[in-house]
Amino acid sequence: MSLIMPNDWLEWHSTRNAQDNAVRLLLACSAVLPSDKNLALLVEEQVVSDLVSFAVHGRRTMERNGQKSATVGDDPTWPPSSASKLDGNNLWHVFGVIIHATKIQIVWENADMQPNPFKGREPKFAGSVEVSSDSENMKLSIGSLVASFFGNVLNKTSEKKQKETV
């Protein structure tokens, strides 16, 4: 069920799809997997698909709720990432870069696990993505994008709607 009480079907549809994609991205970037080329390709395809859908529906949700000024911030509770700091970047703009991407590449990062549960394979997680468009290149922490959307968009929209109904 959506965290936001929708005013209409379009709002519900965009919000629900953005939430579903965000949750799948959260799970993908938090899961530690054994290094395996075939498994990595399956995960990469799913993450890219979910990321683009998340950007489209997340941006639509932001537009419908007048929240184009939400910013991306680093959240210490997400898996460590080598992604560049995005503090202060506009989430609307970041979603736009993803939507208009010409290339999206998953960045696999090593998980510091001792002892290693995967005999003969390294533990890795999909912590970030490199996104290229005609106008710019960005390295984005998947967890930071999800946290920013949930914290800056969904929670504020939910609070606003609750105040309106009181």
Would you report the number of β strands? 6
Helix and strand content put the structural class at alpha+beta
End-to-end separation: 21 Å
Q: Major beta sheet, specifics?
A: 4 strands, antiparallel
In which range does the helix fraction lie?
40-55%
Radius of gyration: 17 Å
Binned strand content: 15-25%
Explain the overall architecture.
The protein is an alpha+beta fold. The chain has helices spanning 9-30, 37-64, 91-99, 142-165; strands at residues 33-34, 71-72, 89-90, 101-110, 123-133, 137-141. The protein has one domain (9-160). It is built from 4 helices and 6 strands. Strands 1, 4, 5 and 6 form a 4-stranded antiparallel beta sheet that branches. The longest helix is centred in the first third of the chain and has 28 residues, at 37-64. The mean pLDDT is 81.
